[in-house]
Design goal:
This protein has a domain at about 1-50. A hairpin with a 2-residue loop joins strand 2 (about 20-25) and strand 3. It has helices spanning about 70-75, 100-105, 130, and strands at about 10-15, 20-25, 30-35, 50, 60, 110-115, 120-125. The protein is of the alpha+beta class and about 130 residues long. A three-stranded antiparallel sheet has the order 1-2-3, with no helix packed on it. It has a two-stranded antiparallel ribbon with strand order 4-5. A two-stranded antiparallel sheet has the order 6-7.
């Protein structure tokens, strides 16, 4: 089997049986089931081309793990609040794409208080759907 295409982040899935994690290798619009390849030799060849994972433009440098600069500064999924939720301004009505932000950013948060050597406060949020896929 010989496949050619643009590689994106590998996807992992834990079925409800919970017996084994399934790994999928995204290549363009298809996914290769890596579990089927366990025990086989595979070869990956880099063709010295980098393309934006959103628009496909040929680029020399990537931003935010695979975007070209124009996509990086304009897409809601590359906004600063994705890595630093405290910077999110969606609750104030400010977003690059309000529809996307309402679906992915406005999530319930859980606050944990711990009294150990001193008071510690941490906030966890439910992971947005975009980070789970």
């Amino acid at each position: 089997m010989k496949k050619t295409g643009m590689i994106k982040k590998m996807r992992a899935e834990l079925p409800e049986t919970g017996k084994e994690v399934l790994f999928f290798f995204p290549l363009d619009d298809q996914e290769i089931d890596l579990n089927d390849l366990i025990g086989h030799n595979i070869r990956i060849t880099f063709r010295y081309e980098i393309h934006c994972i959103h628009c496909g433009r040929l680029i020399k440098k990537t931003y935010a793990q695979g975007y070209c600069y124009p996509c990086f500064i304009s897409l809601p999924e590359t906004d600063a609040c994705i890595l630093r939720p405290e910077l999110c301004q969606v609750h104030l009505g400010i977003s690059r794409n309000m529809e996307w932000a309402e679906e992915h950013c406005l999530q319930d948060h859980f606050v944990y208080l711990a009294l150990t050597s001193g008071l510690k406060v941490t906030a966890d949020m439910l992971l947005p759907k975009c980070l789970l896929t």
